[in-house]
Structures are given as structure tokens and as C-alpha cells.
Write a structure and sequence with these properties.
Blueprint: E1 17-21, H1 25-31, H2 36-56, E2 61-68, H3 76-99, E3 102-107, H4 115-128, E4 134-142, H5 144-160, H6 171-175, E5 188-191, E6 210-213, H7 223-234
Parallel strand pairs: 1-2, 1-5, 2-4, 3-4, 5-6
Helix pairs in contact: 1-2, 2-3, 3-4
Bound molecules: 3-methylbut-3-enyl trihydrogen diphosphate (IPE) (2 copies) and magnesium ion.
Length: about 250
């Protein structure tokens, strides 16, 4: 098996960093009168398609929201299945990711996972750490507010130890302590499943991201949906608070 290389377009001004809220697995399965877990399993195929697409379109960073800290409040059986799915995908796919030059990083609080999962994560990250074709961040047990608070605590500790003065705290100081440390901000944020919200995903990192919301449920996500999102991105005028087109004349 390998990632599909057949889907190509050439385009300038590519987003460097695309983030995706992969939502709608449960509803997709219910629509088919199957269990929600069936939907999560089907969603794994869409993850592979999104990785292939990113590789083929010179997207340098892909950040996927796989499991939020609030998802623990779902029924135990669903949570257990999601974690098992994550673990088996990690074990099965890591060699392939490595062969494709993908650097895998798990962002999120992994300390809650058992030792076996943590070992697999550490192995996968070590194996792929020098790859540079695509940085693939998987947000597992992630929470945007948690990310910021973690950073603030580290800064507070530096201040306490006299290593940093409060006047010298900058955006860079906080960014350095975020899970996405050293990576550029998100350019394009895609959410499937029809909801128009962030659900505590990357908060700091999406300050000037372009949003693309689609009703497509995650298991139906494919290269064509990703391509439509990308084409929508190309049409955006990113102004960052400035005026790019002179409309005063
Ligand atoms: C997204 O699909 C996957 C996770 C949150 C883990 P959902 O499970 O949220 O599917 P819906 O939104 O209930 O359809
Ligand atoms: C966001 O989806 C989390 C992931 C996709 C992992 P949710 O389904 O958990 O978000 P809400 O509950 O609709 O806000
Ligand atoms: Mg959902």
C-alpha cells in the first residue's frame, strides 16, 4: 500500500500550514444505521487521503484534530475505541509515513495515555523527526486553552527564576512554549461536519487563518473536497488589518 500520487494541481501561494477539524464521523455512521465507532473507523481512510493530498500539493504542515480533551466526556466505549484506533493506526502507518518523508508529531497532553501508547508515540516521533517533506501534527488529547496555559506557566516559571523579565515577554516567548513551537501560524483551517465553530482547537495559531467550513462529513472527505477548500483559499485576500487594494480613488 502507498499514498495515492495521482491527484495534482500546480498553484502559487499555497498555504504552508493547513489545519483540519475532522468532524462528522458519528453522524455519518448513524445515517447508515451503524454504530458511531464504525464512522470513526471509516474516518481513518479520510485521514490518509488528506495526507496524500498535502504531500502532492506541497503543503508543508498538516495539523489534524483527532481527539479533544473534552471528548473524554463521551461514553466510555466510544472513547476506548477511539484510543484503540489511534494506537493501531500509529503502529500500522508509522513506517509508511517515514518512507514518504513525513515528520510525525503528536500534539496534546499525552501524559494521560498508558505507557504502551506513549512508547509508540515516542518511537514514531524519533523515527520520523528528521523528515521534511511534510510535518504532520496529530492533535490527540489536545485543547487550545490548555496549550496556552501550559505556555503561560512555563513563562511564569522563567520569570520566577529571574531568567526573564515581564517587560520582555513577547508573542515569540509564548509561541516558543506552544505545542506547535517553531511552526508558522495556520493559513487555512478546514472543518467538516457542518458546524461553524473551533471547539477549542488551535486558538493562538489561527489568529489570521482563513476558515473553510463544509457540510461534508469526515468519512466522505476526499481529495476533491480538499481541492475545493484550497481553491477557496486562493480567492481570499489576506489583509492582516491592512488595506491592500486602494479603494479611496
Ligand atoms: C469527529 O466526529 C471525531 C471526534 C470528535 C473524535 P464526531 O464523533 O464528533 O462525529 P459527530 O460530530 O458526532 O457526527
Ligand atoms: C471537535 O469535534 C473535536 C475533534 C474533531 C477531534 P467535536 O465533535 O468534539 O466538537 P463539538 O462538540 O461539536 O463542538
Ligand atoms: Mg462532532
Amino acid at each position: 500500500m502507498s499514498y495515492d500520487n495521482s491527484f495534482h494541481i500546480n498553484q502559487k501561494n499555497n498555504p504552508s500550514h493547513v489545519a483540519i477539524i475532522m468532524d462528522g464521523n458519528g453522524r455519518w455512521a448513524i445515517n447508515k444505521e451503524k454504530s458511531r465507532i464504525y464512522g470513526h473507523k471509516a474516518g481513518v481512510e479520510s485521514v490518509k487521503k488528506s495526507i496524500s493530498f498535502a504531500l502532492n500539493h506541497n503543503i508543508k504542515i498538516l495539523t489534524l484534530y483527532a481527539f479533544s480533551r473534552d471528548n473524554w466526556y463521551r461514553p466510555e466505549q466510544e472513547v476506548t475505541s477511539l484510543i484503540e484506533l489511534f494506537m493501531s493506526a500509529l503502529a500500522i502507518e508509522v513506517e509508511l509515513l517515514n518512507r514518504h518523508g513525513i515528520c510525525l508529531r503528536i500534539i496534546g497532553d499525552i501524559t494521560v495515555f498508558n505507557n504502551l501508547i506513549q512508547d509508540r508515540i515516542n518511537y514514531a516521533e524519533m523515527l520520523t523527526k528528521n523528515n521534511n517533506k511534510l510535518i504532520l501534527n496529530i492533535a490527540a488529547n489536545y485543547d487550545g486553552r490548555w496549550d496556552i496555559i501550559k505556555g503561560v506557566k512555563k513563562i511564569a516559571n522563567k520569570v520566577k527564576k529571574g531568567l526573564l523579565s515581564p517587560e520582555h515577554i513577547t508573542e515569540d516567548s509564548l509561541e516558543f512554549h506552544l505545542a506547535t513551537k517553531e511552526l508558522p501560524a495556520v493559513d487555512l483551517l478546514i472543518r467538516t461536519g457542518g458546524e461553524c465553530r473551533i471547539s477549542n482547537f488551535l486558538l493562538w495559531q489561527i489568529a489570521y487563518a482563513e476558515f473553510y467550513f463544509t457540510n461534508v462529513l469526515w468519512p466522505d472527505f476526499d481529495e476533491n473536497v480538499f481541492d475545493t477548500a484550497l481553491k477557496s483559499f486562493y480567492l481570499r485576500e489576506r489583509r492582516y488589518g491592512r488595506i491592500l487594494t486602494d479603494t479611496t480613488k
